[in-house]
Amino acid sequence: MLITYTCSWLYRIRPSVQHTPFTKYNGNKNLTSDWNSNHPNPNQLRWKPFSIPEQGKASVDFVDQGSLNVVTEFGRMHVEPNEICVIQPWLRSRGLRQPLRAAKPWSYRSQRPGKPSRFKTPTAWYEDRDVNGFLVVSKYQGCLFQASQNHSPFDVVAWHGNYVPYKYDLSKFNTVNTVSYDHCDPSIFTVLTCPSTKPGNCMSEFMGLITGKYEAKETGFQCGGASLHSMMTPHGPDVDCFEQASKAKLAPQRIGDGCMAPNQFTQMTKLISASLILNTLAIMLYLHAGDNVVMYLSGVHVRELLSMAVTPWAEHESQALDKEYYTCWQGLRKNFDPSWKP
Questions:
Q1: Model pTM score
Q2: Tell me: domain 179-246+256-331, CATH 2.60.120, correct?
Q3: Binding-site annotation: residue ranges for Fe cation
Q4: What is the C-alpha separation between 126 and 157, in angstroms, rounded?
Q5: Residues 6+ positions from 316 with CB-CB distance below 8 Å
Q6: What is the DSSP letter of 65?
Q7: Where in the sequence is the active site (predicted)?
Q8: Whole-number Å distance between alpha carbons of 35 and 267
Q9: Cα separations (Å) of 26 from 30, 137, 144, 339?
Q10: CA atoms of 281 and 268, how far apart (whole Å)
């Protein structure tokens, strides 16, 4: 197995050790690392999209529209919708509030469909600026901490190495698929990967829709929403999708126009996959259970080794959980006929 060693050497105006001691950060009360604070829920779960607040009426963690200006120690990146931005752990960054969504720690897997030349690194930039009380927020062992310093952390005047943030335009990914029947293993769509030491595949599934309509559930599964189907919990296309597919003429047809659905599969390996069908762009993430993945698009689709825990906020306080989700399958009829012959 080929192992690539990644590191970067940064030349700073001031050393990064110049900061006050870290203390607990309480800026987000809904962020938790206590996965025992809520009882397990084996049901199929679906969340409706959050409404976009009026300008100036509410504070938000992530914005749903526009592009993202990312400032890192390595320089600046402008990230457009349908692009992913990867910022590795321990690298300092700042995003202005016009964001796309960003995926956090993955490394690139060399595959022809996603050419290395199409991965873009930051444009060189630094600032030599004194600041009183520049706040730095860091995640450590599942908790957030804060420290302050009297200078900008973006004072790296030069660097060399291969551990560097980057972005990738998913529309540049060259997808392939079967031309006969069924569908290929999702790994053929891999854009990024970070394999774990234990390969395998167990299915818990968290999925979100970015643009367009999702064929399997066109009415209830909306852009900005998400669904969670835990391991050993049955799920699948709803009544409308089954009826339409069963009665459709056996002829070529366009599917998934304008649809972009990110799929995150949590398992023993971790990947981001993308597929493009006409105007359809789907993203899949495969990740090791327990890793922290943030994809600031509309959600992610998880198939994982372990069952996922749902936070109290997501299940009880968000007011977005669709309590009628289970009804989309209740109209499926019995079609079995033991006397039928082809």
A1: 0.72
A2: yes
A3: 205, 235
A4: 6
A5: none
A6: S
A7: 183 (proton acceptor)
A8: 19
A9: 10, 10, 8, 66
A10: 25
Binding residue numbers for homogentisate: 214, 235
Annotation marks residue 183 as catalytic:
yes
For residue 73, which of 145, 132, 32, 12 has the smallest C-alpha distance? Answer: 12
**Cα separation, 336 vs 328, whole angstroms:** 20
Q: Report how far residue 268's alpha carbon sits from residue 198's, in angstroms, rounded to the nearest whole number.
A: 6
Q: Which long-range contacts (CB under 8 A, 24 or more apart) does 184-190 make?
A: 186/263, 186/265, 186/273, 186/284, 186/286, 187/271, 187/273, 187/286, 189/113, 189/273, 189/274, 189/275, 189/282, 189/284, 190/109, 190/111, 190/113, 190/114, 190/271, 190/272, 190/273
Is residue 325 a contact partner of residue 220, using CB atoms and an 8 Å limit? yes
Q: 333: which DSSP letter?
A: P
Binned average pLDDT, 10 residues per bin, the chain of 342 residues? 73 94 88 82 89 74 78 92 82 53 36 69 94 90 90 95 88 74 69 62 70 68 80 85 85 65 41 42 46 33 62 89 93 92 85
The tokens of 264 are what?
A: 């995150």
- Give phi and psi for 94, each to the nearest 5: -145, 135
Active-site hit among 39, 183, 301, 316: 183
Residue 217: both structure tokens together: 């559930």
Specify the 3-state DSSP secondary structure of 8.
strand
Strand partners, 288: 267
Structural domain boundaries in the chain: 62-174, 179-246+256-331
The span from the CA of 203 to the CA of 31, in Å, is: 25
Q: Which residue ranges are tagged as binding site? A: 205, 214, 235
